[in-house]
Amino acid sequence: MTAATTDLVEGGANARKAGQYVYIAAVVLLCAWVLVPLYFLLINTLSSPETVNAYPKRFIPEFDLGSLTFFANFAGILTALKNSVLVAGLTMIMSITIGAPAGYALSRFDFRGKELFRLLVLLTRAFPLPLLALPLAVMFIRVGIDDTIFGLALVHTTLAIPFAVLITFSLFSGIPIELEEAAWTLGCNRLTAFQKVILPLVLPGITASAIFAFVISWNEVFAAAVLTIENRTLTAFLLQNLDTSPLHLKFAGGFILVVPALIFIFAVRKYLFAMWGIANR
Amino acid sequence: MNPRLLPYLLIAPVTLFLCLFFLYPFVLVAQQAFSNGSGFTLDNFRDVTSHWKFPISLRNTFLLALAVVPIQLALSLLMATMVNRMKRGRDLILYIWTIPLGISDLAAGIIWLAIFEQSGFLNSMMGGLGLIDSPTTFLSYSTPVMVFVAIMLAEIWRATAIMLVILVAGIGLIPKEYYEAGEVFGATPWQRFLKITLPMLRPSLQTALVLRVIMAFEVFAVVSALGGTLFPVLMGETYEYQFRLLNSGAAAAIALVILAISIAFTLIILRVLRVPKGATI
Amino acid sequence: MLRPKLAGAVSGLALLVSAASAQAEVLFWSTQAKPVEEAQAMRERVLAGAGEVDYQPNDAGPWITRLNAELEAGSGSIGVLGALHGDFSAMDPEDLVNLGDLGLGSASDTFNDLAKLGTDDLQYIPWMQASYIMAANKKALEHLPDGADINALTYDQLIEWSASVMEATGEAKFGFPAGPQGLKHRFFQGYLYPSYTNGVVRTFASDKAVTAWEKMRELWAVTNPGSTNFSFLQEQLLSEDVWIAFDHTSRLAGAFNERPDDFVAFPAPAGPEGRGFMPVIAGVAIPKTAPDMDAAKALVAHMLKPETQIATLRATNFFPVVDVALPDDLPPSVQAAGAAVATMSASADANPGLLPAGLGDKGGEFNRVFVDTFERIVLAGQPIEAVLDDQKKTLARIMDETGAPCWAPDAPSEGACPVE
């Protein structure tokens, strides 16, 4: 490819260079688009109550830790954090172990009821959870899984399953079936072929589903507020009432809500774009 | 193992799970929409659709979805192709672009309100640059277009990453040889995008679009944070009926209307972006 | 790689399920004192001496959903409910434990009557009260119209005042809680209607009501157009987007506590029929599914103790319902609001209203009639008479279906309160 470039005439190189600048500018612009609003949140989080309410706003944080300290001293916040992480982790594991096989089935087989199944999976996302919470809570109380991490994770898994099924489905569909068949002829059975050939290819997709599952569970407020009492998650414990709190605490609370999710995505990002896909052969 | 049974075995866990935690409560709730305590009735539907706000919220929901989803589709495709070509810093850039994924709509509402409110960051910035003398009210009943644009921007900011992640995972699966072949035959980057990327990406595009469209019809928290009472949407009306008017029959009725709209759009997308059983080489 | 993870998860599950039994605490399930600071003050100060109490404030949605789920399942963990009168009146009194035998109650018989929810026995115990008042930035005071007394303002003067502030600053600086969480309906039910029509239900579509809505339009013309996003006016007072505001005392408190020297509190304005105003009552009740009835009753009794009531006042800006001498060192918000409410009640033209009663679970629909009327007349600019005639039908249907008799300032009725 480099050889091809050097062969190009001068004008082509210039055009390419200009294109390169446009490209870099676009990347920078898009990064700013994402980061600037977050930076505003950071400024407000690190501001004293007076500054939060002041106009015009400052564009450099003053590093007042008052609002964050308030939350840090909030009794029970660590337990709530632990609960949130547990629920999100369980949701992640359950939604993928249950969802990925279905995604594989959807992409590789034609079977009776396939469309119906797909619709059922999608419908799960198309109906608001707060309406379903009442019958679910009644069921949980009767069965005895009310106010447990596990019970809440079940509900969150229901929310995450459509993502897990559909994302793995689209990933499996992108992998040529011939690849799998080749593995079968080389002495693999369906399972080992799957393990050795397909799984590495879809790891980015699995990571994407995992991120979705984690984030969905982490940010879910309503079911968490209804279904947990003793074992409140961070969102239900602290942040469901954010909109009624004074401004400076509103921002600090929003910040606390955002940070762990960002850390999680940061930790798994390399799998998201794992370059051992077909593209790299 | 009987290969005809295999797909059913693979989808059994999801089916069971969804029947228990989605279908069962869903049927109970949906029943309420069709009953008035004594028997079958369509009164709930008649009541909610005849309320003066219903056509407005229906129109708003559609307008917002129509305005936001295509932009997000284009933007996420652009970002995904950009990331794919990137040589250095890919990890970091992708991470930055996926950050909004971890941000709940509650927090997104708080962040964008801080930007658009009267003493917010946008006014501060414009004031600092000398563009305005005194802060303007962006979110007022006299400037409905501005309210709409603000909601649009916040939604684009918040929910583009959802599509991006799915598309990035899918784009990584497209064999590089295709692009190299395209280059050899003199295809421009745009032609390569049209002839190789788009068709090969169909499974991921389908998934991303379906999930995004379904969520677009359920939009609520950001809209209510920025639009206040000025921009009613269907999901807001659902919550109004369920929790303020304590009329769960009417709430279920609106939720079913949303569900029907979602199904219709899902079927259209599934039909238009039909995915073959496994990609072929 | 998956298998050990799974095994770990399963054993983890078993642990989690078994860990969630044994509760000794009383769960206090509340819709009040929600802001994080107030919730913390409730836990650390108000409930400190009440034994093991788990105070959980919730939004209306989760609050009612969890409560209904427990009632439907027939068992639960909620020990004590804390909510507004309206929340309780939407419930079936059968689901609440009769509390008459506790010998508790508020100093006001009116409140105690309301708390019976139409039965013969106390269904909840009045717990704390508040009201709606006005607040202003001191910068606005120089623009007061000539001869206007801030403690005896009329609606016309308020409009004139806001107009001259607008003229002086170039911005509309009256603020009104018309946002999604705002309590605008209470302004119409308890303030505008009584002040202009001396009624709420009977006079809903009267000629006087037409005048009231015309005034509302005039007021709206000098109101910050961002008001449709405002739900807690303390925020806009502090950011100075708003100089003059109407809101719930506890939703103005933040402004007074943060900058006590910059703001004044004063009574709501008066109209031709007097100075309409309305109380807010929160109560505590025990659902029939409470796991430990004695502990729950002990907690209810604790909430009514004079010293608890004072601590509650400090924590939430809601005033005591029992007779108790207020100490001198109360927070600035409480002092300001207390003085304004006292002036309002003692004013010569006071026209106090009551909370809607007997509406049952139609309370939300009743509120919506007023909110819809506002949005159609003021925001959408539809003709006043036509809107009132249209909304009147809904109101009449609600009154007929519930059979709720009239409440003050409407004249008493035989049977359902008629919309005239």
As for the CATH topology of chain B, it is MetI-like fold
Q: pLDDT under 50 segments of chain C (min length 5)?
A: 1-23
Find the CATH topology of the largest domain in chain C: D-Maltodextrin-Binding Protein, domain 2
What is the number of domains of chain C? 2
SS field, number of helical segments of chain B? 13
Reconstruct the topology from this structure.
The complex is a heterotrimer of chains A (281), B (281) and C (420).
Chain A: H1 2-7, H2 10-45, H3 49-53, H4 66-72, H5 77-108, H6 114-126, H7 129-143, H8 149-173, H9 177-185, H10 190-219, H11 222-227, H12 234-239, H13 247-272
Chain B: H1 6-33, H2 43-50, H3 53-85, H4 90-98, H5 105-116, H6 121-128, H7 144-171, H8 176-184, H9 189-200, H10 202-216, H11 221-227, H12 234-244, H13 248-272
Helix pairs in contact in B: 1-13, 2-13, 3-7, 3-10, 5-11, 7-10, 7-11, 10-13, 12-13
Chain C: H1 2-19, E1 26-30, H2 36-46, E2 53-57, H3 60-73, E3 78-84, H4 85-89, H5 109-114, E4 125-137, H6 155-169, E5 174-175, H7 184-197, H8 207-221, H9 233-239, E6 244-248, H10 249-258, E7 263-266, E8 275-277, E9 279-285, H11 293-304, H12 306-316, H13 332-346, E10 350-352, H14 363-379, H15 384-402
Parallel strand pairs in C: 1-2, 1-3, 5-6, 8-10
Antiparallel strand pairs in C: 3-9, 4-6, 4-7, 4-9
Helix pairs in contact in C: 2-12, 6-8, 7-8, 7-14, 9-10, 10-13, 14-15
In short, what is this structure?
Chain B has 281 residues and is mostly helical. Helices cover 73% and strands 0% of the residues of chain B.
